[in-house]
Amino acid sequence: VGALEFDSSGRVIAYQRVANGTSNNCSGGKTPWNSWISCEEIERGRVYQVDPKGIKLKSLTDMGALGFYESFAYDVYTDPETPRFFVTRDAHHGVITRF
Q1: pLDDT digit string (tens) for 11-49?
Q2: Beta-carbon contacts of residue 25 (< 8 Å; ≥ 6 apart)
Q3: Backbone region of residue 95 per phi and psi (left: phi > 0; alpha: psi in -120 to 50; beta: other values)
């Protein structure tokens, strides 16, 4: 998983790898506390939280044997003290998991 940095005109000015050892990362998104979620789209796929600045080590959330994660979203509006996160499985009738 890599992070790009842009200048005010939209030009890429920096790139760095922020997570190694992941496979077929597909979906992801920014968290309310400015980390990045990256989801693997493989059997027994995993969900990682990474620091886009590359300062903190990645952390792993084991979602079990669902794998093939396609989409990531969160809800901080219903209860700002307890954000809810959602991932979906990349399948025609794929499940949605909340954590």
Answers
A1: 999 998 888 888 888 878 888 888 888 888 887 778 888
A2: 1, 38, 39, 40, 41
A3: beta
